[in-house]
Every structure is written in structure tokens, then in C-alpha cells.
Write a structure and sequence with these properties.
Order of helices and strands: EEHHEHHEE
Oligomer: single chain
Number of strands: 5
Shape: globular
Number of helices: 4
Structural class: alpha+beta
Strand content: 15-25%
Number of domains: 1
Length: 110
């Protein structure tokens, strides 16, 4: 078991994110139970203030989440500020990331 030299930001989509995704393809509506799965992003571990830490990474995370649903940036919301991010996602930040697996961290096949 190894303690990773990383922090983790785990985000979970809220209803506004689901509503945006469903507006893009109303013929294939998705429920929050599908789109609402949490995603975890590993970040640098050095931070004192959780909100400042999230503000450092939220733009990159927002883009990753939008791109995972819809790749045409023309259809992305124009307003992608921190306030909108917080309205669209709940988040949790952990400064302790421990690897409990015995498998290699990286898969050479990918």
C-alpha cells in the first residue's frame, strides 16, 4: 500500500448538468443516476485552502466533464465560471490518497 503524493477532487454532477446534456439530445434522455456518477481528479497535494485549490483546477475539470458528454464546444455553456461550476457539480476534496491495490498504477496496454 502506498500513499500517493496527490490530492483528489471528486465531483458529482447535479441536475443542471443533466438538464444541459439532455437538451443536446432530447431523443436520448439520460437520468441523473447515469450522468450523476462521480469522477475523481488527482491534483498536486500542496494546498491550505480547499476552495482556492478547487478554483485552481475547476476550469480544466469543467472542460473534461463537458467533453465527456458532448465534444462540440459550440454547444457548451458560454458561462463556465466558478459559480456555474458549483451549481452544476458537488465536490469533495481529499488531501489523503492511498493506493490499496497490488496491481500496477499504470496499465502498459493503454
Amino acid at each position: 500500500m502506498e500513499i500517493l503524493n496527490r490530492s483528489a477532487i471528486t465531483i458529482t454532477p447535479k441536475q443542471p448538468f443533466v438538464d444541459w446534456a439532455n437538451a443536446l439530445a432530447p431523443e436520448f434522455p439520460m437520468k441523473i443516476s447515469v450522468l450523476g456518477e462521480s469522477h475523481t481528479y488527482l491534483t498536486n497535494p500542496d494546498f491550505e485552502d480547499a476552495e482556492k485549490h478547487l478554483k485552481k483546477y475547476f476550469k480544466q475539470i469543467f472542460i473534461e466533464e463537458l467533453d465527456s458528454i458532448w465534444t462540440d464546444e459550440q454547444d457548451w455553456p458560454q458561462k463556465r465560471d466558478f459559480k456555474t461550476f458549483c451549481e452544476w457539480f458537488s465536490f469533495e476534496i481529499s488531501d489523503w490518497v492511498q493506493d490499496l491495490s497490488t496491481k500496477p498504477l499504470f496499465d502498459d496496454d493503454h
